[in-house]
Amino acid sequence: MYRFLTTPRWWGINIFVVLAIPFCVFMGTWQLGRFEDRVDSHQEAERRPDPGSVRAAPLDELLPVDKSTSGRHATATGRYGEQFLVPGRELDGKDGSYVLTLLRTGSGTSLPVVRGWLPHGGTAPAPPAGQVTVTGALQASEHTGSAGVHAAGALPRGQVGMISAASLVNVVQDDVYDAWVTLLDAPAGLTPVPAAAPEGSGLDLKAFQNLGYTGEWFVFAGFVLFMWFRLLRREAEQARDEALGLAPVAVGESVAVGVGGSDAVGASVAVGDADAVGASAAGTSATGAPADGAKADTAP
């Protein structure tokens, strides 16, 4: 009854199922792992001590920026240089800009420093002259997918869309650190910008998207298995019916009908042509004319 499993069609179906189910399970497990990583990062961030209670460290000791150093207080010494505005930044629901000033350190590499947030229409104060030492929360470079990055396209001179070495290296002559700091104490006229949590460390929408994708992949695996069993059952029932002679006859198929129980005497009847059968039995054609060999009744 299951000989149909050896046909080329079923070989193809079985190979597809054998490959599809492990693939769906693998993808579901991978998405679940991504979600668990985000949960672990979130728990680790909650256990991490408040950066304000940890002694500020020299900038070079905290680079490169990762989840363990993001938000840590860093110190750097140098002289302020070029200053830019980063438009489209909100603080407490109000629109404004970050005031970004480059601090040229003794190594010749400039550190982007966000001195504070400026409300829309305000004027950014000039940076102090001479050598200064700054202390701020260390942050990783932004990218187009970072929270708060809205500026797109060409910007006026003196403005940048995001805080990153990639966006600043083309507008300044010095090398730029692949990191930035936001000052703990902003100068007059500016509001301190709070440090942002490192990306991937919170239970945000992306984390729950990973969890949703996990369920989808496992559902796909179950659906493939369900359809395989359903198709197998249907084919097996059809093969059983054919073996018992219970297979349905298609319309127009020729069927031998025994007359009087004798196999020798029979008539070939076209299934679905009931009118022709009735007409033949009455000795007339389907059109009502006398059949060949039949005599029509005549009036005396």
Overall number of structural domains = 3
Let me know the largest β-sheet.
Answer: 5 strands, mixed, barrel
CA gyration radius, whole angstroms: 41 Å
Summarize the helix and strand pattern as letters.
Answer: HEHEEEEHEHEEH
The coarse silhouette is elongated
What does this structure look like?
This is SURF1-like protein. InterPro entries: Surf1/Shy1, Surf1/Surf4. The chain folds into 3 domains: 3-44 and 206-242; 71-196, no CATH class; 251-290, no CATH class. It has 5 helices and 8 strands. The chain has helices at 8-47, 59-62, 165-168, 205-243, 274-281; strands at residues 57-58, 73-91, 94-105, 110-119, 131-140, 179-183, 254-259, 262-270. The chain has a 5-stranded mixed barrel with strand order 2-3-4-6-5. Strands 7-8 form a two-stranded antiparallel ribbon. The chain is elongated. The two termini are 67 Å apart.
Write the layout of secondary structure elements.
Elements: H1 8-47, E1 57-58, H2 59-62, E2 73-91, E3 94-105, E4 110-119, E5 131-140, H3 165-168, E6 179-183, H4 205-243, E7 254-259, E8 262-270, H5 274-281
Parallel strand pairs: 1-2, 4-6
Antiparallel strand pairs: 2-3, 2-5, 3-4, 5-6, 7-8
